[in-house]
Amino acid sequence: MTIKRLGLIGLTLISLVLSGLSLFSSWQEPQFQSRLELYQTNIALQAQAWQPEDNKDEFQGIQSAILGDKPLENATKQYQEARKSAQTNLVTAKNKLEKLRSQSVTTPIPPKPLPETDSAKNISSPQEQQLQQSLNQLQKLLVELDLRLGILHAQQGKTDIALKTWNDLQQRSDINPEFRETSAVLIGLWSDPPRLLPNAQELIQKNLDGWFRSTALVQLYQLQQRQEALSAVKATQQQAATQAVLKLAVIGIIPTLAALTGIILLIFVFAQLLVKGKAAFLAQNADVPWTTPWGGETVLQVFVLGFFLMGQLFVPLIFSLIPVPLASGNVRIQAFSVLIRYLLVASGALWVLYSSIKRFFPLPEFWFRFNFQGKWFLWGLGGYCAALPIVVLVSLINQQLWQGQGGSNPLLQLALESQDTVALGIFFLTAAIAAPLFEEVLFRGFLLPSLTRYLPVWGAILVSSLLFAAAHLSLSEILPLTSLGIVLGVVYTRSRNLLAPILLHSLWNSGTLLSLFILGSGN
């Protein structure tokens, strides 16, 4: 065995350990989907106040189609699930912090007493600081959820449950005093008889938002008999409701139509496959492998050196040496950091790929084929429509398996909470252009055809899809991304044109970013 091969084996083991640790660390991380559903719930609450002047019967049908029959009950259920998930994450964070502190080394007591300063009291490891920050965020989130849950219960006539929720907040000493004051304001508004605090309006406007703020202000102004202020807040509420309906229509109706098209398409192609067999549209190139001039060692070299170690070791090391706070609160810096990281990983991986296979040039037919003629556009668009119902179904099953845990792509969270146009443009460049180009060249253009040397085409599709999903380093995303990868693989093996899966991938990521932008703009 050569030194090169021994080194490759060692690096493979290192990359497996690093990737395994990254996947394992996502085990107890909250899923992004739960936050996404909460954002959509907030927009749905705003939309349920929509009342156009004309076409009332038609309005009721549209409203029911978009929001369902019981929007308040559905929102309450969603918030209760979010609270349960946040409480679980809080307990986990507390246990981790206590375990970390118990393992830390105790410093010796100095011979003379030293003056106790704030900096001395707060000395802790970066990991402890990060856990403490997560703990504070979760505690704040729980308080915000309780404030909102109380308003939801009150609007459904369950005033006793609402008052109990807010009274429980009053008893807590570990929260921001403003939140206790806000809960006191809400208790006063919904008590019988009501009690009006002098700073009620200020606290409501500061600590509540969206539908919850307008609902509390309506209650306040009605009790104060301030008709002008009441009319103004109702007008604002109606304007927000109209915008919310439009947003829900965009993020709900368009994907639904695409998914229905996908279902029809899936039924058609599978029915044709049953009737026509190998002459069917879906059977095109289904059993035709690529002629692969290299072996598994070359594949390992590309993925271990060019992808995993570049992304897990080399690029993070480079960024750790840059004296710029890339993890700061500036969303533009964060977006630019994500783009640069991705471009560095992609450039390194593609350079290793080129260096590894250049001795086999010229390559056999259909390798890395970009052909702007033919039906690649129909394959990409049809694949996107077909992927929607498949991935949605798998995601629903996946949610039940993971129960809100398993981690998520941090880019999605940044894109959801950012309303900065420049940052969103950078996110779009990363997710809708750079990612489809790089990932399709690597996973569909190189890995999948290489595997057909050892596996049948369907086996190569499945294995490449699993590796594609695992490369995103999030346990909760493995099943949905594997199903997406299978559709991408089918599209590529049938079309033999990389433009088709690149288009599908770009449409998928673009649709996700558009939905995140719309949901974020309503919160």
Q: Nutshell version of this structure?
A:
The chain is an all-alpha fold. The protein has helices spanning 3-25, 32-47, 56-67, 71-103, 118-121, 126-155, 159-170, 177-190, 200-207, 210-224, 227-276, 296-320, 331-357, 376-402, 410-417, 421-451, 457-470, 478-495, 499-521.
Shape: globular
Number of DSSP E strands:
0
Structural classification: mainly alpha
Note the total helix count.
Answer: 19
Portion of residues in helices? over 70%
Major sheet description = none
Reading the helices and strands in chain order gives HHHHHHHHHHHHHHHHHHH
Tally the structural domains: 2
First-last Cα distance: 60 Å
State which percent range the strand residues make up. under 5%
Catalogue the unreliable spans: 105-123
The chain-level mean pLDDT equals 83
Radius of gyration: 27 Å
Q: What does this entry look like structurally?
A:
This protein is mostly helical. Helix content is 75%, strand content 0%. α2 (32-47) packs across α11. It starts with a helix and ends with a helix. The protein is globular. It has two domains: 25-100 and 128-247, no CATH class; 284-521, no CATH class. It has helices at residues 3-25, 32-47, 56-67, 71-103, 118-121, 126-155, 159-170, 177-190, 200-207, 210-224, 227-276, 296-320, 331-357, 376-402, 410-417, 421-451, 457-470, 478-495, 499-521. Residues 101-130 are annotated as: Disordered. InterPro entries: Rce1/LyrA-like_dom. It comes from Mojavia pulchra JT2-VF2. The chain crosses the membrane at residues 248-275, 302-322, 334-355, 376-402, 422-443, 455-475, 498-519. Keywords: Hydrolase, Membrane, Metalloprotease, Protease, Transmembrane, Transmembrane helix.
